[in-house]
Design brief:
about 250 residues; about 60% helix; mainly alpha; 7 helices
Length: about 250
């Protein structure tokens, strides 16, 4: 049977049309809904944090080295057999304390700069995922009372926003273990330093030994804080590198 439309080809059974005419007669599919517009944040590209991350890690490692030096000085104070040896250990401990203070200042400045950089990226990934305004990246460290939890909250929001994921996997929950451990060590060390007595070079050997024990415990706590900070910094940088590799548009967390 010939096609009822073109009369040139055999019709398909039951349709009266050949395959070519049947295809031409098929109605076009209805157009789908328009693609949603992307947020304005997508117009801003995230910045690389690799170089700044390396600098922060180097300074944190330098802080750990200064804490280890302080531990050695504390050990000499504790092992002193007489007042003269204790005095030499105390002077060495004072030098170590100066290096610790210098490292803390330099590392603190660079760490805040690093926080601003990764926070900038986090706002691109998740504009509504930051619970505090950008100004608190600095003021959160210096304003009394709120500095006990604001920096941790900012880092936690950055961590959560930086987690890379793909469509269909759902939004991952924040694995805040390293962030919480780092902040717990930081707070403990901040409070504990007010309870540690300064070693007096002219004091008794027993008093110098007692001060050495307190400072040694504080040094160990500072080393743990710096080591955990390195873990947090490297993890956030690695996640943001993976997030950037996804390309725009970025998936919001």
């Amino acid at each position: 049977m010939l096609c009822t439309h073109c009369r040139r080809r055999d019709a398909v059974d039951g349709t009266g049309l050949c395959p070519e005419c049947a295809h031409a007669a098929t109605p076009a599919a209805a157009p789908g809904p328009p693609a949603p517009a992307f947020p304005d944040a997508y117009l801003t590209r995230p910045v690389s944090v690799d170089g700044l991350t390396s600098a922060v890690v180097v300074l944190l490692a330098a802080c750990i080295a200064a804490d280890l030096f302080s531990l050695v000085a504390g050990g000499l104070m504790y092992a002193a057999a007489d007042a003269e040896a204790a005095r030499r250990g105390t002077n060495l401990s004072a030098t170590a304390a100066g290096l610790q203070a210098l490292g803390l200042i330099l590392c603190g400045i660079l760490f805040i700069i690093w926080m601003r950089r990764v926070r900038f990226n986090a706002e691109i990934y998740s504009p509504d995922g930051q619970r505090l305004s950008g100004g608190w990246v600095f003021w959160g460290w210096v304003v009394p009372v709120v500095n006990f939890w604001y920096p941790r909250r900012i880092i936690a929001d950055i961590w959560r926003s930086s987690v890379p994921w793909t469509t269909g996997e759902g939004v991952p929950r924040l694995a805040a273990g390293p962030v919480n451990l780092w902040w717990a060590c930081w707070l403990t060390g901040t409070v504990a330093q007010f309870a540690v007595t300064e070693p007096d070079p002219d004091g008794s050997v027993e008093a110098i030994r007692d001060a050495a024990v307190g400072w040694a415990l504080l040094d160990v706590l500072n080393i743990a804080t710096a080591a955990l900070a390195i873990v947090v910094v490297l993890t956030i940088a690695r996640m943001q590198r993976a997030k950037n590799a996804l390309g725009a548009p970025y998936l919001l967390v």
